[in-house]
Design brief:
Elements lengths: L1 H25 L5 H7 L4 H29 L2 H19 L4 H29 L5 H30 L1 H22 L11 H15 L2
Length: 211
Amino acid sequence: MSSFRHRYGLFLLLCFIAFATFFCSYLRIPVLPLFAVSLGAGPVQVGIINGAFMLATGVLSIPAGLLADRIGPRIPAVAGIMAAAVSSFLVTQCTTPSQMAAAYLLFGVGLAAFVPSMLSQVADAFPAERLGQAYGWYSTAMYVAITLGPATGGYLGKLLGLRQVFYLSAGLLLLVALLSLAFLPRSPVVRKVAPHDLLAASLTLLPALSL
């Protein structure tokens, strides 16, 4: 019973971290194009900025997952959140669209490190026969954050200003990184997971990463 409670508590923590990370990261989604335009970007440059983020995420997700398998998922997950925080702060210091694209590359790197590392920990928290249920709840937490984040970010952008939303995103992500560093397990539970289980879980996240 104590082992079940520990795993359940860990799973709730993972869902909270996923929710907080995506919510804080996606605060900036609606204000990014507006801020880029304020720096002189046109429609093509705004597309390039978003494309840089997606390219980095797509290319680096598999290497980041392999790294998490080798050294454990805790450090890549925390490093991914930190990279997202730093990228948000760097955006506030940009003066040209090309600088924004470079800063958003770092956001893509962070998300590439965060996503597979968290999926690995979700797999560790539940028995194999209940992974579908676990991934379902985890995905729900993530998609709720992806829904609420941009709506909140747009409101805050109007209330506080565009640049301030990026500062807020950076500060909140830093807090989430510290929480993750303090409470995520230092070593993963030793358990083999079928590759098709992790592949199926990864496919559930593809729509989110394309936003």
